[in-house]
Each structure stands twice: as structure tokens, then as C-alpha cells.
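Document type: protein sequence-to-structure record

Subject area: structural biology

Format: plain text, a pair of labelled lines:
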Amino acid sequence: MSPDDHVQLGLQEVQELLERHRVLTTLASHEPSADRRELLEHIQRRQNLVDLQRRFGRRHPADLASILEALSVEDRRLVWRQLEPEQAARTLVEVGESVRASLVEGLSHQDLVAILTQLDSDDLAYLADSIPEDVLSDASHALEAADRRWFLDSRAWPEKSVGRLMTPEVASARETQALGQAVAELRARGELPDHTERLFVVDARNILKGSVGLDTLLVRDPQTQIADALTADIVSFQPDQPAADAAGAFERYDLISAPVVDDRGKLVGRVTVDRVLDFMRQESEQQALALAGLRGEEDLFASVWESAKNRWPWLCLNLITAFIASRVIGAFEHTIQQLVALAALMPIVASVGGNTGNQTIALVIRGLALGQIQESHAWHLVRKELTVSVLNGVTWGTVMAGVAGLLYHSLPLALVMMAAVCLNLIVAALTGIAVPLALKRARRDPAQGSSVVLTFVTDSMGFFLVLGLAQVLLM
């Protein structure tokens, strides 16, 4: 059974359980005797708890998160409240931000603290931005002193920095030890931190010197000194570095974990592949939403009011830009009255330009995300995209001219359409490059609102080019 089938089966089971819950609730509400009604409600709650624990007690928190995200707000809160505190806490880490917010809002202060105290310091830090401060403060007091100090320190790092991704759980060894001593210490620990595939080697001052793989510990002679077996050239990060840098390095070098050091080179933590993957998923989702003009992640089952507010800002901007585009058309009303064919052909020019611009924007945003676009070769990118747009403009402008000539039997009109398509594709390419780069320079998300601005430019310029060229050459 595939993971998706496994989740769908779990979703069907919980929906059947919820339907039975609603039936029992209806029966209890119609019971005239207060004692019998209370008994029915007690039986219902107990049966639901037993069924949920039996069916979902062994499910992975990620599967439970997927199931909760597919339920309405009321149903997901009901299911989540039935889970054991530890399982509920692990599931809270896995769900998306908008669904997490709906779960948090549905619990009392005391119940939420009881769930959060099941988490370790780095998971609690991961949820910090989604939890009310008073709840977070009470939950953090359940941590041991060292973990609580690390939790407070990690929150001081900027959002989307390596410091927000790192964990204090590190397996390390001294460079003066032998491999056999390091193995003995690992055995004494009883268990290794998750995603440990190597030991980070430090000196007496805890300064990072390199790493030694677990395979080396197992294969090499136990008497070999770690200093003679370590790999000194390893990828490391500092807490204040952008998390995107870590994501790029993990993808480039196929890392499972990487050390984090302070400005003196001391080992302070590590970043693991699971946190990096979570960050990359969130970033890709936010970019996709930003391209569509949404401010952030939106719960599919959120209230109408919340969903509407999430979409207002860019809809407002889109409306303003549409009015501006309409004024461009209004300025050439006389031309349109004389050549009605222009009304039918204008949207085609705008549409082709918008498509070209979206292709360029997608390539530029991807290049920025991967660190492939630098100021030193920005002009090369501009020249290349201009050349591509001219080639496409000539090619598809010729096709457009042929179609317009066949439909309206006018060679001058065909030439106007060819020139308009070619020029609008050049404008679209320049816009597709300029908007993301400008947003990046302004330290904003390059995807944020790019499509709205692009649509405004390609529509307005498409209409202006068609109508302006027609007025000059055909009137």
C-alpha cells in the first residue's frame, strides 16, 4: 500500500467514526430523560476515545497531520482532542501553519500547555511563532535548565535563519581520542540523535576540527587516532546565516546533517535534513501562494471571512491596475470605433505577453532561490532573455500576422499585430526579470505579487502597442 493510500484509508476510518459520533449525538439530544442522555453521552465519548486510540495510536504523526488537514475545523478539533498528549504534540509539529492555528485556538490554556510539555526544546522552538506567548512561557518551564536556556537563545535568532533550524542534539568526539574510545562513548549514550551519520570532531575548547563517519568508526582499527581519520573539509554554518543557504548546501552536497558554529568556530549545534526539508517545503508553498497573490497559507476549511481577508490586498492592487489598463483602452476609443477588429485582437497580444513574462519570472525566481543569479552576470541574463523574446516575437508575431491577414484581409493590420506581439514580448521579458530582482534587492520575497505586476504591465502595454500602432499606421 502506498503512503497516499495509507492516509486515505485512515481518513475514511475517521470520517466513519465522526459520522457515528454525530448519530449518537443526535440520539442523545432527543432522549427525554436527563440521566439517560448523560449516560449516552458518556458512552459515546468513551467509545470514540477507545476507537481513536486503537485505530490511530500507532500512526505516524505526519499521517495524522494529513488526515486532520482534510477535515473541517470542528471535526479536526474533535479528533485532535481524543489523541494522547504526546501524539497530539507530535502531530501539531507536522501540520501546516493555518491548520495549526485552528487547533491551537480550539484548546484552553491548560490543555495546550499539557500537550506542549511533551515536546523537546527544538520542537517547541519550531512551534514558537504559532503559540501564544503566555502558553509558550508556561510550557518552556517544563524543560530542563539547559534546554530552556537553549530554547530562549534560539528564539533570538532572526526568522528564516540557520539558528531557527538548528538543534542542540549533537554527537561529538575529541580529536585526541582513539576510534575505539569514541565507539565506547556512543554505546554508553544508549541512543544517538536522529539523523546522525557522523561524529563532529572538536578540540579541548570545543572548536570544530572536522568529522568522522560512523562507517569509519566501524571499519577502521579501534586504536587509530580520530585526528588521523577525520575529514577536515566539511560544510558548516553560522546561526545568523540565511536558512536558504543551508537548504542550498544540503541539496548540493546531499547532506544529512551539518554542524553549526559560532563566530569563534565553536560547535553550538547542528542542522538536520528533516528540518531543512520542512523549510524548503514551506518556502515553496509560500512562493506558490505569493505568485497567486495570497498573503500566506490558507486553511481550505477556514471561515469565509478569514479566506476573504487573505485575498484582499492583491485583489485590490489587481483592480487598480485593471482600471489603469481600461483607461489605456479608453484613450483610443475613436481608433477602436474605426477598426472594430482591434477589439478582438488586443486580448491575444496581452495574453501572449503574459505567458512569456510568467515563463521568465519562473526562471528568475528559481535562479534566485538556487543562488544562480548574481549581479556580475545579471546583464548576461537580460541579453539572453531579450534575444529569446525577439526570436519568439518574430516567430509568433508572424503567425499572428498570418491569422489576422486571413481573417480581416488587411496587410497593414497584419503588420501592426506582428509588431505589437514582438514588442510586447520584449516588454514582458524585461518585466519578468526586473520585478523579481527589484523585490530581491528590497529584501522582499521575489515571488510576492510578481504575477499581478506582470499582468498589469503586459495587459497595459499590449493594449497600448496595438492601439497606438494602429492609430499611427492605419488611421
Notes: The first helix runs from residue 3 to 29. The two ends are 69 Å apart (CA to CA). Strands lie at 172-174, 198-202, 208-213, 257-261, 267-272.
